[in-house]
Specification:
Elements (H helix, E strand, L loop, with lengths): L14 E2 L4 E2 L4 E2 L4 E2 L4 E2 L3 E3 L4 E2 L4 E2 L2 E4 L4 E2 L4 E4 L12 E4 L4 E2 L4 E3 L7 E4 L4 E2 L4 E2 L4 E2 L4 E2 L4 E2 L4 E2 L4 E2 L4 E2 L4 E2 L4 E2 L13 E4 L4 E5 L1 H6 L4 H15 L5 H10 L6 H11 L7
Helix pairs in contact: 3-4
Length: 269
């Protein structure tokens, strides 16, 4: 059991509840608040201004950025739920200004040097699970009980509705929207909206793109790319050729091209 620390260092403004247990070797930044019955392990580093609520557990090799808020029962850095894991040194990295609501769990990576990462300014709602080796981008939103299997990638600005499981090794592209209670088995391209069990694509994420500041002209171009991918008789290789040689504009064209070139599980129909 790590030693309990309730003393304030002279050079750092610390605010620990008397029942919090923080290992002497943990690195805690200026102005961090740690709530009742929270446990912080030896190899943890927490950036300045974080608010760690009650009954939170942060262990393993976990690096937490600045100004994050972890609510009651959040668990970070526990071993991966992977039968192949044999106790190797693996990691969790979380960026800045994220909000993790009640009982969110983030496992560390599996295999030598494996890393699970979450970007910055994400909103992860209650009971969501981010499994080993997942990569979550910036400004991503997960509603309640989203469950990512291992090695899932969720790119910047994606939004996933509640009670949605995502199959291992699936990728979800930038600005995509996945409706609640979906079952995601294949890659979901950028800019689209998908829903269902199994998930199917139903068009571009028009409302989400508008809220993110995409002009009507940009949205119209994205819709043309969508029609080329989903409503033409071209296969993915032919679509890629047309995207590269057509009159589509960057950066949106490049986002879609890069995603399709990297797709491993095939795209959602």
């Amino acid at each position: 059991m790590p030693d309990r620390i309730n003393l304030k260092r002279a050079d750092v403004n610390l605010d620990y509840h008397p029942t919090a247990i923080v290992h002497q070797l943990a690195k805690i930044g200026e102005g961090v608040k740690i709530g009742p019955y929270t446990v912080i392990g030896e190899d943890v580093a927490i950036g300045e201004g974080c608010v760690i609520g009650p009954h939170v557990l942060i262990e393993g090799h976990a690096t937490i950025g600045k100004h994050n808020v972890f609510h009651h029962g959040v668990t970070i850095g526990t071993p991966p739920q992977d039968l192949k894991y044999q106790g190797q040194r693996t990691h969790v990295i979380i960026g800045d200004e994220n909000i993790l609501r009640e009982f969110v769990t983030v496992n560390r990576g599996s295999g030598d040097g494996g890393t699970t990462s979450v970007g910055s300014r994400c909103f992860i709602m209650a009971y969501a699970h981010i499994a080993h080796d997942c990569i979550v981008g910036d400004e991503v939103i997960f509603a309640n009980s989203v469950n990512l299997a291992g090695h899932v990638r969720v790119d910047d600005y994606a939004n996933i509705g509640g009670v949605t499981p995502v199959h291992q090794f699936v990728s979800i592209g930038k600005y995509a929207f996945v409706g609640g209670a979906s079952r995601v088995e294949r890659d979901i391209p950028p800019f689209v909206k998908a829903a269902g069990s199994p998930a199917r694509v139903y068009g571009i994420n028009s409302l989400g793109l508008e809220r993110r500041g995409f002009s009507p002209e940009k949205r119209a171009m994205i819709k043309r790319m969508f029609n080329l991918l989903y409503r033409s008789e071209l296969n993915v290789s032919q679509v890629l050729e047309r995207l590269k040689n057509g009159d589509f504009e960057d950066p949106e064209r490049k986002i879609l091209v890069d995603f399709l070139e990297a797709a491993e599980r095939g795209i959602t129909k």
